[in-house]
Design a protein that fits this description.
The structure is a homodimer of 458-residue chains.
Chain A: E1 9-10, E2 20-22, H1 46-49, H2 55-62, E3 68-70, H3 73-79, E4 87-89, H4 91-97, E5 102-107, H5 118-130, E6 135-140, H6 144-156, E7 159-165, H7 166-171, H8 173-181, E8 185-189, H9 195-203, H10 211-224, E9 228-230, H11 237-256, E10 263-267, H12 272-286, E11 293-299, H13 304-307, E12 309-314, E13 323-328, H14 350-357, E14 362-366, H15 368-382, H16 388-407, E15 412-417, H17 425-432, H18 443-451
Parallel strand pairs in A: 5-15, 6-7, 6-9, 7-8, 10-11, 10-15, 11-14
Antiparallel strand pairs in A: 1-4, 2-3, 4-5, 12-13
Chain lengths: 458, 458
Amino acid sequence: MPENKIPYKIYLKENEIPSKWYNVRADMKNKPAPLLNPATLKPMTAEELAPVFCDELIAQELNDTDAYIDIPEEIQDFYKMYRPSPLIRAYFLEKALDTPAKIYYKFEGNNTSGSHKLNSAIAQAYYAKKQGLKGVTTETGAGQWGTALSMACSYFGLDCKVYMVKVSYEQKPFRREVMRTYGASVTPSPSETTQIGRKILAEHPGTTGSLGCAISEAVEVAVGTEGYRYVLGSVLNQVLLHQSVIGLEAKAALDKYGVKPDVIIGCAGGGSNLGGLIAPFMGEKLRGEADYRIIAVEPASCPSFTRGKFAYDFCDTGMVCPLAKMYTLGSGFIPSANHAGGLRYHGMSSTLSQLYHDGFMEATSVEQTSVFQAAEQFARVEGILPAPESSHAIRVAIDEALKCKETGEEKTILFGLTGTGYFDMVAYEKYNDGVMTDYIPTDEDLAKGFAGLPKVDL
Amino acid sequence: MPENKIPYKIYLKENEIPSKWYNVRADMKNKPAPLLNPATLKPMTAEELAPVFCDELIAQELNDTDAYIDIPEEIQDFYKMYRPSPLIRAYFLEKALDTPAKIYYKFEGNNTSGSHKLNSAIAQAYYAKKQGLKGVTTETGAGQWGTALSMACSYFGLDCKVYMVKVSYEQKPFRREVMRTYGASVTPSPSETTQIGRKILAEHPGTTGSLGCAISEAVEVAVGTEGYRYVLGSVLNQVLLHQSVIGLEAKAALDKYGVKPDVIIGCAGGGSNLGGLIAPFMGEKLRGEADYRIIAVEPASCPSFTRGKFAYDFCDTGMVCPLAKMYTLGSGFIPSANHAGGLRYHGMSSTLSQLYHDGFMEATSVEQTSVFQAAEQFARVEGILPAPESSHAIRVAIDEALKCKETGEEKTILFGLTGTGYFDMVAYEKYNDGVMTDYIPTDEDLAKGFAGLPKVDL
């Protein structure tokens, strides 16, 4: 390891865990477009959202003016269980790549949910408990959000009903057991337990499910059950708010050593990790205080940013949720069955969509075999087996570092390592056996999804 | 969380990672008995051990006089990848138990091997590389050691052949994929690839395997292949030496806050974790500088300490390895098929056996349903899903804390949380489904194992 004052892992102290979340919308000139009531096409009011979401979370969802929001003490206490998360200087990866680039990653996988999702899960469970609810419903794709929420609900004594995308339920049987160990009930989606599930099963008997469909089921159950609300692990403004703890910690750790990143890279499915990681950096960029190159990385098989349309769309397949303006492939879009892991949502955070639309960030897409190649290389030198989702960011970080090798530039790269891949070994097995495939949707495939976009004329 | 100066997680700084291992044998008046050559019944010489083990590791194995041994810089560098590991104050568990006890645990699971095994794996791989070897062979039970070794070998570019106990190979298919991702080859044991494997399969066609049998296969391949040696993840003196990094860090972290444990608890299979955790504390006890109550916890289904004999025995089922004097159930002992996870070795570290024999530590055994009950309780309040092995220590730590609740004593308890349970979800599923069973071997069961003990008259 080179002589350097910067340690391999930078840990903040426990009293340096942020006490406020940062709300990037407060600094956006063009605010993200509001959620619309699908019946009236008018912006959803807090009252209209109340049957679905917890009251305090609705307030956070609609708040685009306060830059900082206090983190309740109970949540700060829980954060101490697994935060601050380390900011790691990738000395071993730099050496393996023989690059002059300086690579850092914020590692959010050192908790049992295996990802950053716990940051928002504990917040949402806290507000549900505070409101006196009995329980919450949700969907999960790769299983990280469901696991995180089951941990959070167990902590506050809330019931937790998880609808898990069927393909993940089958690929990741052990995820289900972790959730059950934390007391959650887990149902593969689409299921026979809801009207929308039965409808989708009737129309598509062999479907492997989608996040959009699981959302519809979870919302139906929440709205129809006394004392329950629905919670979501990505896409929403409130989630990006909670996840800002990632970026705030990362920035504080870098600031300690006077390091300023040139490039910030995050994987993007619904945007929870990317939005959280970049939050304070984007804030500086929006306020004109600093400039950063910010790159969203998405799977070529589910390319919302790079090939989607910026339009109002349903957040769910069942079209029961409000409309959001976002980069979307259409709520009927389902990634091909060979797509492993998460990052399979048809849409994207409205906040990130607006920022991308306004030119504050870039987006790129990568194919999954090249993602797993990067994952394997990273695992072997850095000692952490990454989640497939996180490995999208690794792929682009490595590519950027290799460009530096060619040009000789000593760029500082920061990327988000959102989680670990311990529950993704079916996908790793395919890669190890050399039978993993890539799939890029054709323009015709995408046209089918776009055809389902609602006609909204504002 | 209570107001307290002691944080939830105590992290040492990277430059506080120990630069020397501590060799408890140097402070033992009664040294552990030497390994014997099974042919001559004389102590094994370095020359006799050389075909099996790496030279430098043999020197460490036989060294019972030097109290401190330098950790080579290359190993210290690797340690920085995942060490220092946190010492965690179990505030949440204390609150849940409503106990006046103060509970600390040293958590070794925050690395991809999922356990403390990496501490010795990287040392053994380093010395193999330094000797110019092509590769190493080993066995693995629960899979933690095999994963750790595959990571270490990948780092140093060594070939790694792992013989995995068949029951674990079947219960933990994903462990195999992690090892393959790190480039190792994994064979279920007993296998057709070795003489001893074929013999055992012929005699016991339906066997689910045992550590002792997998050791025989790995040793046979190492001895018979040019440029290979055999490495072992537990039991040996050298392993306890490397694992002393656990106890040294734990003690340094406690010393920072002026905390002295009253009770130290560790799970015990072959003794690697327990021996490492207690090392510096035992040193003080041996030198008369301090007193600690030290408790080894083993499964009731594999009770080497509590029901075994202190005698010379073969380290492996095939009886090709040297004899060690230890608490043993006989090299033919195989735990019942319902036993989940590791801690399934028939014997026990010679060093720990001698210390136990001389009254420096206690031992107790626990049944697995009560272990999983403790695991679930711990996971829900502390946010870490523990390995079944580690949960043996959790069980006894909780029991000790509950005793303090009755007596009002404010004892300080330290236990070793050796790893995470992400690859043990088949066992958790059984517990969640209420179909996990206990099994305590009868005296007749044990008598069969004892009947196979070699006749050694010294």
